[in-house]
Design goal:
CATH superfamily: Glutaredoxin
CATH topology: Glutaredoxin
Largest sheet: 7 strands, mixed
Shape: globular
Low-confidence stretches: 3-10, 12-22
Order of helices and strands: HEEEHHEHEHEEEEH
Oligomer: single chain
Number of strands: 9
Distance between the termini: 73 Å
CATH class: Alpha Beta
Strand content: 15-25%
Helix content: 25-40%
Strand order of the largest sheet: 2-1-5-4-3-8-9
Number of domains: 1
CATH architecture: 3-Layer(aba) Sandwich
Structural class: alpha+beta
Number of helices: 6
Radius of gyration: 20 Å
Amino acid sequence: MKLLLFLIALQASALAADIPSPKKDAELPPCCRAPLAAGKPTDRSLYQLDSTWTSDVGRKVKLSVLRGRPQILAMFFTHCEYACPILVNEMKKLEAKLPADVLAKVDFLLVSFDTKRDTPAVLTVYRKKENLATKRWTLLRGEADDVRELAALLGVNYAADSRGQFAHSNLITVLNAEGEIVFQEAGLQQDLAPLVTAIGKLTGAAER
C-alpha cells in the first residue's frame, strides 16, 4: 500500500512539473498583459475595430488592449524575401536610437499580411530569429477581412502573387496612446530622425 501511494505521489509530481507556471506580465508581449484602465476609444482611433487577432503566444486579443501606450506599427509577413527584412530592421534601428526613458514608454507592433502561413508558431520562431524583445514587441496575425480593413485604415496596399509573396506598401506608423495615427513614414531606409522626434513628442521627451 505504501509503495502504491509513493508511486501515485511520484506520478503527480511528474505531471505537475510538466505544467508551465503562469507567466508574469513582464514576461508577456504588450498585447497580453493586464489592460490599462481606459474608456471608449475616440472617433479617430484604430481601437474602435471589433476584430480579433491572435498573438505569437496564442492569445486572442482586440487591438484595444494596446491602448494606453504609443505603438510603432508596421505590416509585414515572415516569408518576405526583400522589403520586410529591411522594414523590420529599420524598426529595430529605431528601437536602438530611442533614449532609454522614451523606449520605456512605447511598444512595437508587427501585423502580418499572410493569413495562411503566419501562424502563432511561425511568428514565435520569427520573434526568436529577429531577437524581438518580448517586453516591447507584439506580433499579430488575423483573418483576411480584418487584415484588409486594418491595412485600408493605415493606407497600406498589398496584393499576393502566384509565388506566395506580397507586393505591399512599406510604411511605419506611429499611434498615440489612444490608437490614433499621428505620424507615418513611407519607403525603405529613410531618415529615422522624424520618427524619433514624433515619438519623443508623444512621450514628453521633446518638452524637456
